[in-house]
Amino acid sequence: MEETISLQDIFEILKKRWMLILATFFIAIGLTSIVTFFVMTPKYQASTQLTVTLPTNEAGANVNDVNFNLQMMNTYKDFITQAQIVAEDARGRLEAETGFEGDFHDVQGMIEVAQNPNSQMFSIKATSTDPQEAMQVANAVTSAFKEKAQETLSVDKISVLSDATLPENPVSPNRKLNLLIGAVLGLMIGVGLAFLNEMLDKTVKDDRFIKDTLGLPILGVVPQMSAKELSAKLVPAQIESSTVTEKRVSEGTTRRSRSRV
Fold first, then answer.
1. N or C, where is the chain less crowded by C-beta within 10 Å?
2. Phi, psi (rounded to 5 degrees) for 146
3. Which parts of the chain span the membrane according to its record (predicted)?
């Protein structure tokens, strides 16, 4: 017969194995904290904001010009992140100003471009384990893009709306999110281990297993007693047994005394 489990059984299992679940929960949080705070290297991000304007016709800017500018955003992104002339120019600026020792591939690896939909404004973001370096790379790439784009892409004007500033807080790892994930995983693993232990436990837990699973009749039930209850039952029995023994000894002594007389 197929064995089923009820909601009450689930709560009983969780109640029975609560120490295992709690231990797994705290172990997971502890391991996540160690990895997040002591193993993972913090990364900082600095960004600049820019807008690019293409040459307009004599009638001035119109809707088509704006739409064309928006379509050019993907070109600007590729130019910033993939064009060697931009990365090499930025590397040269960094080397002259800060003693940067990497090559243009290192610069490209730190850079990403972000843009809101239907907006002519975009951001150049630099990510590094050093907050000072992140700020310097973002500003250097922005200056290199501004110069090379006007030479290569024939843009009319590149306006830097805000320069990169020194970031104070790391963008990764996300400590709160990591701890939350660790707590959820610890709880899930703890519950899973609780049910696994229950499945591997082949002892008979109640009379339903005998009747429903084995199909055997119940001949008798031995109640489970705690140590306190067992002690309460045994002490009066021991006192009564001792009293009976003493009475028998006393009667035997009296009987022997009479026989001597």
1. C
2. -60, -40
3. 20-40, 177-196
Q: Whole-angstrom Cα distance, residue 193 to residue 202?
A: 16
The model's pLDDT over 13-54, given as tens digits with 9 standing for 90+, comes to 899 899 999 999 999 999 999 999 999 999 999 999 998 876
Burial class of residue 47 in the structure, from the number of CB atoms within 10 Å of its CB (0-12 exposed, 13-18 middle, 19+ buried) = buried
**Single-letter amino acid code for the residue at 16:** K
Full DSSP string of 11-69: HHHHHHTHHHHHHHHHHHHHHHHHIIIIISPPBEEEEEEEEEE----TT---HHHHHHH
Cβ contact 21:182 at 8 Å: no
Q: pLDDT digit string (tens) for 138-169?
A: 999 999 999 998 888 877 788 999 999 999 99
pLDDT tens track for 164-202: 999 999 999 999 999 999 999 999 999 999 999 888 877
In angstroms, the CA 59 to CA 52 distance is 19
Q: Please give the CATH number for the structural domain made up of 44-162.
A: 3.30.70.1130
8 A C-beta contact, residue 142 and residue 87: no
Residue type, 166: L
